[in-house]
Design brief:
Number of helices: 16
Distance between the termini: 40 Å
Mean pLDDT: 90
CATH class of the largest domain: Alpha Beta
Largest sheet: 6 strands, mixed
Shape: globular
CATH architecture of the largest domain: 3-Layer(aba) Sandwich
Structural class: alpha/beta
Number of strands: 15
CATH topology of the largest domain: Rossmann fold
Helix content: 40-55%
Number of domains: 3
Length: about 375
Amino acid sequence: MTDNLFKEVMAIKESLGNSVVIPAHHYEMDEIVKMADFLGDSYKLAVDCAANDAEYIVFCGVMFMAEGAALLAKPYQKVLIPDRTAGCPMAEMIDAVQAEKCYANISSLCDREIIPVVYMNSYADMKAFCGSRGGTVCTSSNAARIVKHFLDQGKSLFFAPDYNLGINTANRLGLGKDEIITIERDMSIKGGNPKTAKMFLWDGFCHVHKVFTVDDINSFRQTYSQSQGNTINDLTNFIPARISKAISEKDINVIVHPECSEDVVNASDYSGSTSMIWKTVKAGKAGSVWAVGTELRFVERMADQFKDKTVVPLRKSVCHNMSKITLAKLKNTLESVLQHRLNKSDNPDKQSDIQLDEITVQEKYREDAKKALQLMIDIVEKSD
């Protein structure tokens, strides 16, 4: 990032004033985070965008997030993203056609009513599929509340696309292995008894979080244990000497995202959404050490901000789709917004002649997808 480019983007943003808002996900690069009006995980961003009145929402994240903002946007609002190719491989692991087929199959096998719940990391067709059947959306921060809401009603769930979030949520809620079915992407099923199963989990995954292993955790803990007896040189990549002398065994922590594998989550001290990780590490004891299993840039940002602690990545793993949102691309998007506004001011009685590359949702999906998103918000806000 050059100082000149940063100043240019800031000048355009300031000239647009309150007409534009820039939400950004935690996994974005620092140059984008510095431009953001609000920062958060997918749930916080969805709520903040829905509550915002800016005419232009320039979403710095991946495509399903911008699409979610477009679903919740007011009629006069326009949602844009600096790079349309910023996708999500997990979201692409299931579509509504596959979901329809799978849902029909498991509904014929299960004695309980099945409610579809789709992770926020999905596209509008999947959200609409859920909304049309009384289902909803969830995020990593509220998955347990959403799933429990339906289980308490005596219903089973078809959970997609992330298997790891699904199994970790099921474990958190105390479901037995015989109550959980895995659905492979070839539609085959394995696990418990489908007649009485409470959760049917689609076998999708996040490539960013799939890389973390129990060996990573064991290696980190072993390196820490070697610090006892003042063998400080064994800590070259983990704990600075100035801190290691002041901490005890209980002050080393492993915290991971629930998109990590079941074994990794079980071997960790904490698991939660990016927002939960941020809050937990921030509240940690001064001098404590945190190995964090999630996207690298987010971990590095915490390490920079929480200097009273040692914060290190459990392993370096980057979301390359988030990397597609650059300061230069943000500048281009803001310039198009500026031209759109100037053209409107020159022609107050008609639409601007400048066409924006808006994020839109097909009408056949809009109503049901919005219904699913709104139900998520309603369930979570009522339980808070």
